[in-house]
Amino acid sequence: MKNIRRAHLALLSTTLIFGFAYNIVKSLMPETLSPMQLIFIRSLGAMIVFWLFQKLFVHEKVERRDLVMLAVCGMFGFALNQTLFYEGLNLSNPVDASLIHVLNPIFVMVFASFLLGEKITWKKAIGVALGATGVLILILYGRVVSFNGNHALGNLLIFLNMVFYALYLVLIKPLVGKYHTTTILKWVSFFGFIFIFPLSIKPAQEIDFPAITTAAWLGIIYIIVLNTFVAYLLINYALKSVSATVVSYYSYLQPVLAAAMSVTIGQGGITAPKIIAALLIFTGVYVVNRAN
Questions:
Q1: Exposed, middle or buried, 199 (CB in 10 Å: 0-12/13-18/19+)?
Q2: Which of 158-167, 254-263, 264-273 is predicted with the least confidence, judged by mean pLDDT?
Q3: Which residues neighbour 1 within 8 Å (Cβ) at sequence distance 6 or greater?
Q4: Which domain holds residue 62?
Q5: Cα 3 to Cα 93: distance, rounded to the nearest angstrom
Q6: Mind listing the pLDDT tens digit for each residue in 17-71?
Q7: What is the tally of structural domains in the chain?
Q8: What gap in Å lies between CA 43 and CA 49, rounded to an integer?
Q9: Please, how many CA atoms are within 13 Å of residue 238, restricted to the half-sphere of its CB?
Q10: What is the tens place of the pLDDT at every residue in 144-182?
Q11: Sequence-distant (≥ 6) Cβ neighbours of residue 125 within 8 angstroms
Q12: Average pLDDT over residues 200-209
């Protein structure tokens, strides 16, 4: 019971970190850094921090057969997840992004069904349909149904980012019971950086470091240390005591934080379509939860 309470405290802390990160990331793009430039800095910085931390405090080797799954988790949980999120947020806004991420628990359940054999009932199917409708409203309302719309494309990329992150949570679960959290993230961040490197090295060479302000550097440090290193450590720690679905439930609080911050600093607004979309998404999540 004590470990479960600690897991929920870790997840609440992670939710706060992620909630503030939406607007910090948005403030850095595209004036200070392009999405791929920020991804390169974040991935390289996180990999270095994880490797140093594991080297100093944890002495553990990974079985060769598990490296394949760690590489897959690195591709889904770091490379694809972060690339799609940054590119998407650059075209969209924090409110839309946080609302789309509320679908994460539903997709965790869907992937758990296919990969772990958990049964999907008709109630769960209805919940998925309601949530998907909410996402479609966010992506398409008031816009031409075309990939030429940058905002719509941004929301679609964020949706895909959320799907890959849900898959990561399901795939990483068996490993957290076998290895130390830091050991897992050392390898996941390493493989993630390997996958990102070919796409980001050229933009990284064009970074104008002297033009990066002190405030921007503080934002970058927040993204590397808190939003990546601390947040991923807390998530993997929580996965040792609770299910991936429980971990994903905490994304419900993120729209509240992101929306409040965005309205305050003028990066976004609350509109009727977004309210309707949010209601559909939360209703879908509620139906899925009641189906357990």
A1: middle
A2: 254-263
A3: none
A4: 2-290
A5: 36
A6: 987 887 898 899 988 999 999 999 999 999 999 999 998 988 888 998 999 999 9
A7: 1
A8: 10
A9: 26
A10: 444 456 878 888 899 999 999 999 999 998 898 899 999
A11: none
A12: 95
C-beta separation of 245 from 108 below 8 A = yes
End-to-end CA, the chain:
21
Q: Apex CA 265: angle with CA 264 and CA 267, to 5°?
A: 110
Q: Helices in 206-266 by DSSP H: which ranges?
A: 214-221, 231-239, 244-249, 254-265
Query: In the chain, where does DSSP find H-type helix?
Result: 2-28, 35-57, 64-74, 81-91, 94-101, 104-116, 122-140, 150-176, 181-205, 214-221, 231-239, 244-249, 254-265, 272-290
Q: Please enumerate in sequence order all residues whose Cβ is within 8 A of that of 144, keeping only pairs 6 or more positions apart, or say none.
A: none
DSSP helix, strand, coil percent of the chain (3-state; round to 5):
80, 0, 20
Q: What is the DSSP letter of 143?
A: S
Backbone angles phi, psi at 267, to 5 degrees: -90, -5
